[in-house]
Amino acid sequence: MNVWPLKFRDMPDGSILFCDDAGAFFRSSHGFLDRYAADSLTALDESFLREGNHGFDREFDLPWTSFAYRWARRQARPTRMNYVILVPTLRCNLACGYCQVSRVAEKARGFDWSVETLAGVLSFLGRLDGPDIKIEFQGGEPLLRVDLLEAVRDFCRGKFPQSQFVVCTNLQALDERAWAFLDADDTFISTSLDGDRATHERQRTHGSAVTDVFFRNLETAVSRYPEGKISALPTVDVADPPDFNALLDNYERYGIRSVYLRPMNHQGFARKIQQGDNVLARWNGLHSEFIELLIARNHRTGRFMEEYYFSQCLKRVLRFDADDHVDIRNPNFFASDYVVIDHDGRFYPTDEARMLSRIGRIDLSIGDVETGIDRAKVDLLNSGALNHFDPDCVHCAYQPFCGTDVIDDISRYGRIDVPRPDTWFCGRHLSLFDKVFEILYRSDEPTRASLAAWLGLGRWDDSMAPAHQ
Amino acid sequence: MIPLRIKVEANADQMFVVRLRSFEGVTREHKAGQLTPFDVVLDRVGPEGAHYVGEGGPIRILGIDPANVDGDVLLVNPRRGTADRLIRSSSRHNTFLVTERCDQICLMCSQPPKRHHVDLFPYFETAALLAPEGATIGISGGEPTLFKAQLFDFLERVLSVRPDLSFHVLTNGQHFGEGDREAMSCIDRGRVVWGIPLYSRDPVVHDEIVAKAGAHEQLLENLAIMCRLGAQVELRTVLMRPNADGLLKLASFIAATLPFVRTWAIMQMENIGFGRMNWKTLFYDSSEGFDIVGRSIDRVRSRGIDAWLYNFPLCTVPEPYRSLAPATISDWKRAYRDECNGCSVKDRCGGFFEWHPANRGYSKLGAIQ
Question: Which element (helix H / strand E) includes B232?
Fold first, then answer.
C-alpha cells in the first residue's frame, strides 16, 4: 500500500495528531510516528490506514479516487457572484470607539450614493447571472437611506427568482418606513449586541438614553419577527472583555443562539485602540474559555448555543464542503462569489479591504461601478490568497482546514510575506484548531452533547474521531 | 391500493402509448394547441366506461374514474385488454420496469428476476416525452444496465429533448466500465441519480446477500468509475439481520472511502417477493434496535455526507432522527394501519408497505401524540 503523506502535530495529552492533505485525520502515538518515519509500519498500522483511506494500491483504484475527490472538494473555488455587500451611506448615528470603517457623522455630506452610483450598482447587479442573490446592506447605518435600500431590493426581486437581504443595523433610529422595510420575509436583521447592557453602553451607545432606545428596538424586533430573522454579534475588547455568562444570557433572552464572538478588527478607528501586550494570546485564551463556558452551559440548561466561528472551524475539520464562510476557506480568491460596493461606487474585495483603504494606508479598491472590476488587481491579490505553497503552511497539520487572510496581513504588517507563524491569522487559527481537536477527542458527556448539537447530529460518540495505537 | 394496470378496449393489434386528456372547462381551440399525436381526449363517460378519441383512434377505459387518470400516459396492450399506467400524472412515484432479468438474486428482492425479456425502450421513450413538466422518472428492473446501450441512448435522447426531466435509475452497479465514458458523457449527469446497493463492508456478507461471488469487489471498482465520471450516486443499504451488525463498519467505510456519494439511504425491507419468503430470517426490527442505525447515520453525516432513512415509519424512529426519515414508500405501495389513527405526524409519514405483516413486523409502533 502507498500511504498518502501525513503531517502531524503534538496534542496536549502527549499523543500526536496526524492529518493528510485531503483532511482525513487520526490520533496516534510517538511509536506510530517512529514506524511511519522509518517506513516500518506493522500489519495493524496498514490495516488502520487502509480503513481510514490513507493509502492506495494502484492509481485510479477506489481509495485513490476517493482521496482525489476529497482533496479536490476541499479546494473551494466558487465562480458565480451571488453575494454583494452594499454601503449606500457611510454616515452613522453612533460613534463606536472600535468602528472599523471610520464612519462619518450623521449630518456629513457627500457620503451617500449619488443617483449615478445607484444606477451603476443596479446596472452591475443586472449583469449578474444565476437564480439567486444575497445582498448585505452595510454602513455607516444603512437605514439612514431606506430609499436606496428599497430601490435595490425592488430591483433584485424583479431580476432574481430568489433573493435575500440582510440589513446590518445598529437598531437606533427606526421610523415607520424602516420597520416596513424590515417586515418583509426576505429581509433579515444583523445587529451588534456587545454583551450585557453596561458593556454595550461603554463600547457603543455611550449614554443611557441611547442604550434604552437600542434595547427597546431590539425587543420590538424580537417580539415582531420569528426566530432566525435577527442575528447579532458581539465585538470583544481583549483589554476589557464582557462577562460571558451575562452575554450568553442576554443573547438567549433575545432568541439568538448563535454568537459570533469577534475580536476587534485591526482596521478603521479600532487600529488606534491600545489593547495591551500579548493581545493574540489573551484573545485565544478568552475564546477557549468561552467554548468551555458554552459546553458547560449547554449541558446545564439543555438549550444549545454555539460560537459561530468555532462551529465553522469544526465543520472545516470534519467535512470537505464547509466553504460557505468567506473568512476561512482555501483558496480564498477575491471578487469571485462576493464583492463590496462602497458609498462612492468603488468595488472592494472584502469589507476589511474597504476599511483599510479608507484610512489611506493602501488603495485596495478593485474598480468601480462605472468601469467594472479591475481583474489585474484582483489577480495580484489572488496570488497570495491560498495556503498551498506557503513554506510554513505546507508543514502544518491544519493546512487542509485553514485559509488565508491577505487583507489582515496587509493591515497589520504592511506586507503579505511575513512568516506565517508570526501572523495574527496563523496564531488565531492554530489555537482554534487546537481547541477543535482537543474537543473532538474528549469523551465527557457535556462535550459530546455540544458537539452533536453544533454538527446537527443525533449523537456524537468517541469512535467518530479515529484513534490508533 | 392505487391500480397500476387498468382495463381498456382499443381497436388495434400492436401495443401503443397514449396520453389521456380530459380538458374539462377548456375551449376547443385551446385544446387543439395542446394536443400531440399521442393524446386522446375524453369524449363521453357512460356506464360502459370512459370514451376517448384522438388521432390514434378511439379507446375505452373501464373501471376507473377519468378524473383520476387525466394526464396519465398508458402503455396499451389491446390484445390483453389492459393498459399499464407508465406515468401517473398526479404521482411523484413513476417507474419504468425496463427488464425482469437480473444477474444477482438478492435475498430480499421484492421483484424476483425472470428470464423472459421484452424490449420496451421505444415505448418508454415515447412515454417519458409525454411526462408532466419537471417530473422525475424511476428506472428499475431486474437490472436495467444489462441493456445499458439502450439505456444510455434512451437517457441521452429524452434528457436532451426534455430539459425539465430527471431520472432515478436503480442498478446493481455491476456493469459499468471505463468503456462507458463516452456514452455517459453524453448524458446530463446532473439529472440522473444512480441508486446502487452496497450491503456491507465485508465482501462475504455482501456477496451472500446478492448471491453473486465477486460482486462486492466489482461494485467497489465500478463506484470509483462512477466517481470519475461525475455520476450522482445514491448508495442504498437495505437493513437486514445479516448486515445489521456490520452497519457501523459500513458507515465508517462510506465516510472514509465513498465521500463522493450524493446520499446514503438505509432502507427498511419489503415483505414481498423473496423478501416475504425470507422475512423470518432477514427482517431487522429497527424499532427495537435503532441504536446501530442512529450511530451509523451520525457517523456518515458527521463527515458532511447526506444520509437518510428510507421506508421507516416515523413511529419506529426516535424523535431526533425523524427529520431524516422522509415519506419514501411509493403511493401505490403505501398503507396506514389502525394504529396510525390520531397520529400527529401522519401527514409527513410514509406509513407502511401495504404488505407489511400484521404480527411479524415492528414490535414498537403506534400513533405519535
Answer: strand B232-238
Q: Which of residues 291-310 of B touch A (CB under 8 A)?
A: 294-295, 297-299, 301-304
CB nearest to B303's CB, from A51, A318, A456: A318
Q: Which domain holds residue A96?
A: 83-276+333-354
pLDDT band for A94, please (50, 70, 90 cuts). confident
Q: Quick check: A459 and B298 CB within 8 A?
A: yes
pLDDT per residue as tens digits for the range B64-97:
999 999 999 999 999 999 999 999 999 988 999 9
Instruction: Give the per-residue pLDDT at B86.
Output: 96
Domain ranges of chain B: 5-87, 94-353
| A15 in a structural domain | no
> Is residue A121 situated within a structural domain?
yes
User: Cα–Cα distance between A261 and A264 in angstroms, integer?
Assistant: 10
Stated pTM of the model: 0.92
Task: Give the pLDDT of residue B27.
Answer: 64
Q: Which of A53, A11, A46, A42 minimizes the C-alpha distance to A28?
A: A11
**3-state helix, strand and coil shares in percent for chain A, rounded to the nearest 5:** 45, 15, 40
Q: Residue B223's closest chain A neighbor by CA?
A: A62
Q: Do A315 and B224 touch (CB under 8 A)?
A: no
CATH number at residue A254: 3.20.20.70
- B258, closest residue in chain A (CA to CA): A66
**Inter-chain CB proximity B304 and A318 less than 8 Å:** yes
Task: Identify whether the C-beta of residue A139 lies closer than 8 Å to the C-beta of residue A103.
Answer: yes
Which CATH class for the B94-353 domain?
A: alpha beta
The SS3 assignment for B242 reads helix
User: Number of folded domains in chain A?
Assistant: 1
Task: Look at chain B and count its residues.
Answer: 369
First to last CA, chain B: 27
In a domain, A284, yes or no: no
User: What is the arithmetic mean of pLDDT over A313-331?
Assistant: 92
Minimal C-alpha gap between A327 and chain B (Å):
20
Q: Does A191 map to a domain?
A: yes
| ipTM, 2 dp | 0.91
User: Is A53 in contact with B223 (Cβ distance < 8 A)?
Assistant: no
A contact set with B (CB within 8 A): 24, 51-53, 60-66, 69-70, 73, 315, 318-322, 452, 455-461, 463-464
CB distance B223–A62 less than 8 Å?
yes
Cis peptide bond prior to B294, omega within 30° of 0: no
Judged by CB atoms closer than 8 Å, whether chains meet at B224 and A459 is answered as no
Q: How confident is the model at residue A93 (pLDDT cuts 50, 70, 90)?
A: confident
Q: How confident is the model at residue A271 (pLDDT cuts 50, 70, 90)?
A: low
